[in-house]
Every structure is written in structure tokens, then in C-alpha cells.
Amino acid sequence: MRMSNIISIAVGAILWSATAAGADESIVVSNVLGPEGPLFIDGNLYYVGWVSNTLSKCDGKTTMVLNHTDGCGHNGLALTKQKTFLLACTNDPGAILELDLNGKQLRRWDTDNNGNKFVGGINDIVVAPNGGAYATVFGPYGDPPVPTSVIGKILYLAPGAEKWVEVAKDLNYANGVGVSPDGKTLYVSQTVSNCMLKFAIEANGSLSHRSNFALLNVLIKNKNDSPWLGPDSMKIDHKGNIYVAQWFGGKVLKLSPEGTLLHIFEIAAGNGTTNVAFGPGEKELYVTVVKDPNDQQAKGSIVKIRNVE
């Protein structure tokens, strides 16, 4: 059942510069169940909760729940050229929602162009410079959550198109996805394998030249031996540098377009870093983080840290 009413709440919302979580780190939103999908738009911070099935907006003083869709498992969030949201429903089988900025559902996709359900759940979405969009299909997440079938995919919605089409398959739990500023390269996280891939984007939006971009265990020492330790969601700055959250690693890694490790942001608020958003001028980062990745409620927060050149 979908709830379209906007619910105003004050729980967990704090001023942008409040509550210290660590050196150069402040908590801006607390008590989020499954924090993901941060976007900073016109002075407001939008984010989702995959456990609470919500999309929320924080203006620095209060938080409003804009959308609650039972059974969705709100995950990736992207802003379209038309100033609407594309929202990833990660609960298996997944779905993709288009919402207006107030959280009202405008459209829903439950299958691709061939009528195939999104088995494995939709994890993340990115809008390319041409206005098209890419989404990732994750994989089975059982109880207990043991990695099994390698069924991850990448889907593409061309500008003006009505249906999503499969453009890559056989990914090992496809997670975060990003596109370079020139629209020529797509990056995708394979959480299981701790590896990031890259593809060349063709003129029609299809993908080619699949290759390994970064093996995170080569760039940094693994924090633990979890099979789920690996790259989660990402954002790409105007220079083409990639900021990728490492689930179970408690870090955000800044990588160059060549795959060189430029900086490690250690996040004190938890080990389950999931995603990152840029503040004005890309001078600050808003990081969604779960305190303990083993917590089924995925209790976490959003912290603000200073970016580095």
C-alpha cells in the first residue's frame, strides 16, 4: 500500500553543523533506517531509507517524509533533467519509480522492455549528461545474506524512451553506478569481489569495452573479511574524480579517472558507508552511513565532511 501524504517529522533532523561524530565530521541527520541516496538540491538534503521505505527531505532544521511506499526498499536516487526523481526499489523483485520533488509517484516500472521482472532488486540509478539513465540490478539477498547467483545487470532508459533495456549482465552484485562528465564512461560497483568496473558508452547508450577499473583491496587494506566488503554507491565530480563508499569498510575513496587513489575519507559514524552527495561547489560531502552493517534495521545517519582537492 502506498502512502502519498507528506508527513512532517522533527526526529533526527539537526542543523548542518551540529553534533560532532569525529574530526572534521558532523552528523546532520540521525536515526535513519537504511540511509542511502543523498542528493543536495537548492539548499535541501534529500535521502532515502531502505528499511523505512521512505524518501525524506531535510532543510537543516526539520525533516519531512515525502514518500512512503511499502515493499519498495528505497535505495538509489537520481535527479532527472526534468527535475523529477528516479528512485530504485531494491526489494526483490525490484522496481523503478519516477517521483516529483514532493514525492508524488508519476510513473512506475516493474519490468524491462522484454517484460522481464527486475529479479535481484534495483540498487542504484544515475542520469547521464544526455538525459538518459542507467540503473543496476543487484542480486539475491537471502536470510542469511550469503552471496550466491551472479545475476547483476545494468539497464538503460534512453532519453524520451518508455522502457528500460538491458545493456550489461553477469555482474557480481551490481551496486553503485556513475557516468563521467563527458558522458563517455560508465563506472559500476561490484560489491561482491570488491571491484569496480568501467564501460565505454556508445552513442546509442549501449556499453562496450568492459574492463576492471579498480580493485579496492589493492588500493587499501581490507578492514575485515566480510564477503560483502566492497564498493557501494558513488558520485563523480566535475573533474571526473570518483567518490565511492565502501560498505563494511567505513570509508569513502576518492579515485582519479585513471583509477589512482587520491584520498581516503575515514568515516567515524560507522562501517556501513553507502553513498555520498556533494554540497555547494563540491566543497563538502554528505555521506550516508550505517553504524553496524550487520544490524538488520541498518540504523545510521548522514554526516558532513570537508572535501579535499
Indicate the CATH topology: Neuraminidase
* Poorly predicted runs: 1-21
Q: What helical percentage do the residues reach?
A: under 10%
* Overall pLDDT: 93
Question: What is the multimeric organization of the chains shown?
Answer: single chain
- CATH architecture grouping: 6 Propeller
The beta-strand count equals: 27
Give a written overview of the molecule.
The structure is a single chain. With 309 residues, the chain is an all-beta fold. It has one domain (2-306): TolB, C-terminal domain (Neuraminidase), CATH 2.120.10.30. Helices cover 1% and strands 52% of the residues. The protein has one helix and 27 strands. The longest helix has 4 residues, at 216-219. It is globular, with a radius of gyration of 17 Å. The termini are far apart.
Summarize this, please?
The protein is an all-beta fold and 309 residues long. The chain has a single domain (2-306), classed as Neuraminidase (6 Propeller).
Key descriptive features of the protein:
309 residues, Neuraminidase, single chain, 5-stranded antiparallel sheet, mainly beta, 6-stranded antiparallel sheet
